[in-house]
């Protein structure tokens, strides 16, 4: 049983899941392509904290951070 099911696993959905799980909610994420459009970005230059990062590397960081937070993917 989940308290929140997030539809879509782009940056917005993953961020929503991250915030909710930090509030101790049982969270699942539904989506086909983890990272959404961001995975297709060759080079992201406007993400705070990074002077430049490949979209794929950024998404890899998202998923690694979420992997420690008990989010389930459906
Ligand atoms: C080639 C490219 C380069 C880009 N470069 C930059 C950049 O440099 N800087 C920048 O700021 N932005 C960039 N963007 C835009 C950025 O990637 C998007 O603004 C961002 O990904 C939006 O995040 P989101 O989570 O709102 O939506 P999305 O990334 O669109 O994610 C939505 C997710 O929901 C899923 N979904 C949709 N409908 C359903 C459904 N009914 N059921 C289940 N799943 C569903 C989709 O499959 C997807 O995984 C780029 C985009 C592209 C395509």
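^ structure tokens above, recovered residues below v
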């Amino acid at each position: 049983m989940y308290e929140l099911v997030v539809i879509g696993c782009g940056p917005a959905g993953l961020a929503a899941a991250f915030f909710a799980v930090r509030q101790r909610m049982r969270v699942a994420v539904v989506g086909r392509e983890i990272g959404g459009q961001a995975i297709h970005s060759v080079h992201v230059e406007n993400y705070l904290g990074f002077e430049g990062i490949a979209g794929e590397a950024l998404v890899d960081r998202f998923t690694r951070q979420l992997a420690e937070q008990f989010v389930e993917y459906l």
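Strands lie at 4-7, 27-30, 72-73.
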